[in-house]
Design goal:
The complex is a heterodimer of chains A (about 120) and B (about 120). Chain A has about 120 residues and is an all-beta fold. Chain A has no helices and eleven strands. Helices cover about 0% and strands about 50% of the residues of chain A. In chain A, strands 2, 4, 5, 9, 10 and 11 form a six-stranded mixed β-sheet that branches. In chain A, strands 1-3-8-7-6 form a five-stranded antiparallel β-sheet, with no helix packed on it. In chain A, strand 7 and strand 8 form a beta hairpin. Chain A starts with a strand and ends with a strand. Chain B is mostly beta strands and about 120 residues long. In chain B, strands 2, 4, 5, 6, 9, 10 and 11 form a seven-stranded mixed β-sheet that branches. In chain B, strands 1-3-8-7 form a four-stranded antiparallel β-sheet, with no helix packed on it. Chain B is globular, with a radius of gyration of 14 Å. The termini of chain B are far apart. Classes of the chains: A mainly beta (about 120), B mainly beta (about 120). The interface between A and B is medium-sized, with 31 and 33 residues.
Chain lengths: ~120, ~120
């Protein structure tokens, strides 16, 4: 059972355009929602993350919008650049407190973004 | 560079064999997570260790096992390998304790396993 659904699977955007990737989750215990960026041959790298007590978080050209009631969140990349071409993963975690925390991530299936000049 | 190292980078082996993947976490991190990345399943959590003890288990097969040593490096052992075990295996590390429910995980470059 996939707990985090991500769409679209692939996305082609022109340079300077806005890239939008959407995710939906089912588990209401999730309370931390990071986005990871992965380039070919590399491991995923944290891009930006949000907690459900805020509806939006912006870091540079990257913005997460969060809708708790709809159990959806999205990544917006403004002024998309060819260097943004990568695979983007949304993820979610819920703390499982038993002494030190366990914050295992449940990932969406990824979106391959291509930004064309 | 995340500060997490993984060896080897590539591994090619035959069905039925056993392999060991190694991970060294970032300095100061106590938690190590293992993930498997395949084309059809995406990134799947396998297992987590915190300061030498198993903390959480995900979709890890019984043929797979892991441990974290006193120096905090971790090894993932895969045995009786099948063609379907071919994948990228990532290790991630984190401090392991967070107030407020978030604890950033930093991923290593991965080990690409090919089972022939």
């Amino acid at each position: 059972q996939q707990q985090v659904k991500q769409s679209p699977q692939s996305l082609i955007v022109q340079k300077g355009g806005i890239s939008i990737i959407n995710c939906a989750y089912e588990n209401t215990a999730f309370d931390y929602f990071p986005w990871y960026q992965q380039f070919p041959g590399k491991g995923p790298a944290l891009l930006i993350a949000i907690r459900p007590d805020v509806s939006e978080k912006k870091e540079g050209r990257f913005t997460i919008s969060f809708n708790k009631s709809a159990k959806q969140f999205s990544l917006h990349i403004m002024d998309s650049q060819p260097g943004d071409s990568a695979t983007y993963f949304c993820a979610a975690s819920s703390p499982q407190y038993s002494g030190a925390g366990s914050y295992q991530l449940t990932f969406g299936k990824g979106t391959k973004l291509s930004v064309i000049p | 560079d995340s500060g997490v190292t993984q060896t080897p980078k590539h591994l090619i082996t035959a069905t039925g064999q056993r392999v060991t993947l190694r991970c060294s976490p970032r300095s100061g991190d106590l938690s190590v997570y293992w993930y498997q990345q395949s084309l059809d399943q995406g990134l799947q959590f396998l297992i987590q260790y915190y300061n030498g003890e198993e903390r959480a288990k995900g979709n890890i097969l019984e043929r797979f096992s892991a441990q974290q040593f006193p120096d905090l490096h971790s090894e993932l052992n895969l045995s009786s390998l099948e063609l379907g075990d071919s994948a990228l295996y990532f290790c991630a590390s984190s401090f392991g304790w967070a107030s407020g429910g978030s604890d950033t995980q930093y991923f290593g470059p991965g080990t690409r396993l090919t089972v022939l």
